[in-house]
Amino acid sequence: MDVWSIVYHTLQLFILHAPHRDPPIPWQLHVGRFLGALPICITALLAFVRIFPDQWNLMMLRLPWKHGHVVICGLGEVGFRLAIEGRRRKKRIVAIERSCPLEARHLMREQGVLILDGDAADEGQLRTAQVDRAEFVVASCVEDETDAAIAASVDKILASSAKSGNALICRTLIRNPYLQRLLSKQKFFNTSLRRYRVNFSDLDEHAVAARQALVRHPLDIRHVGQNDETVVHLS
Q1: Are the C-beta atoms of 114 and 140 separated by less than 8 Å?
Q2: Sign of the dihedral defined by the CA atoms of residues 153, 154, 157, 158, in that order
Q3: DSSP readout, 156-223?
Q4: Which of helix, strand or coil describes residue 10?
Q5: Which pLDDT tens digit goes with each residue over 211-230?
Q6: 67-103 as b/e, with b when 16 or more CB fall inside 10 Å?
């Protein structure tokens, strides 16, 4: 066989299309065929992840053993800050936003946040975000009514889900104090569903900003140990 034929048949190995050989085929040849194609397969996978990061993250999210991510509904001022903070803490973030600005979308993608385009109150979008396997849900849209609808949709999804898991908290941003009191007192949600709870107190905009400021600039300049009697006062 001439040199060019050898080169040609070698290249065929890399696309899993080697010349036909009658059995028995040596095991060394089998190993060589697959090892030859392995670099191309890895390169193709890395290229797919690089070019289509959202599709890849969505595929990973659908794996049955994947759980414990955070679903953020609405990438407004509060949702955006929480997404950045969550990534800083190495959390997997899935955001649902109807109209995310291009600049914010690029930043979220660089941070590794998966963005689903659509209505965050839509059950289909929440199911795509695998909300029933999330660690917690954040409802931080602009309209209070939308955030209340999101909490109700999550309630409905969990009530109809056959999956059992850890308790899920929906941190819901309600800016109107009257509506917040009304939702807190009335039984708008399935109170018999033990694995679901709606929290209306965690997402006050000023409280979130204050917590982030204290995390980045702690009051105990010299770290206070667990058994230290020193007490830090905020006034």
Answers
A1: no
A2: negative
A3: HHHHH-----S-EEEEE----HHHHHHHHHS--S-TT-TTEEEESSTT-HHHHHHHHHHHHS-S-SSP
A4: helix
A5: 777 777 776 656 666 677 77
A6: bebbbbbbbeebbbbbbebbbeeebbbbbbbbebeee
- CATH class label, 54-216: alpha beta
The DSSP code for 19 is P
Per-residue pLDDT of 20-34, as tens digits, reads: 666 777 777 777 767
Range(s) of the chain covered by CATH 3.40.50.720: 54-216
pTM over 0.85: no
> Is the CB of residue 74 less than 8 Å from the CB of residue 142?
yes
DSSP 63: S
Q: Which of 138-147, 157-166, 216-225 has the lowest mean pLDDT?
A: 216-225
Burial class (CB in 10 A: 0-12, 13-18, 19+), 148: buried
Please write the tens of the pLDDT for every residue from 113-122: 999 999 999 9
What is the torsional sign of CA 183, 188, 190, 192? positive
Amino acid at 35: L
